Amino acid sequence: MPRTVQDEGQLFPVRPDVTAKAHLSEVHCRDMTDRAARDPHWFLVEQARRTAWTRAPTKLKNTSFAGHVSIKWFKSATLADPAVVTELLENRIR
């Protein structure tokens, strides 16, 4: 199976040098997708634990499909200072 990105119905190959530097392999991505489908609540818990918060979430998900559709994740939380988050992300990328 070729490594591709889908955009508006078109497939674009991912360059091998980009794939080699990726921090998320195709297998890991599929594993995460499978876990999220099997148990969405615990998937959100795992992702919340990986995030830098000033105030951690007390509610993971708030959804309403009656009338106006509303889907909110981590609504009760406050992300850490953007500079801190940027530094954490850059460190993970390196």
Structure report:
The structure is a single chain. The chain is of the alpha+beta class. The model has no long low-confidence stretch (mean pLDDT 80). It folds into 2 domains: 1-38, no CATH class; 53-94, no CATH class. Helix content is 44%, strand content 22%. It has 4 helices and 6 strands, in the order ββαααββββα.
Brief sketch in words of this structure:
With 94 residues, this protein is an alpha+beta fold.
Topology, element by element:
Blueprint: E1 4-7, E2 10-13, H1 16-21, H2 26-38, H3 40-49, E3 53-55, E4 61-64, E5 70-73, E6 78-79, H4 82-93
Antiparallel strand pairs: 1-2, 3-6, 4-5
Helix pairs in contact: 2-3
β-strand number = 6
Which strand order spans the largest sheet, edge to edge or round the barrel? Answer: 1-2
Order of H and E elements: EEHHHEEEEH
Radius of gyration: 17 Å
What is the average per-residue confidence, as pLDDT, rounded to a whole number?
80
Per DSSP, the total helix count is 4
What's the N-to-C terminus distance? Answer: 28 Å
Low-confidence stretches: none
Core attributes:
single chain, 94 residues, two-stranded antiparallel ribbon, 4 helices
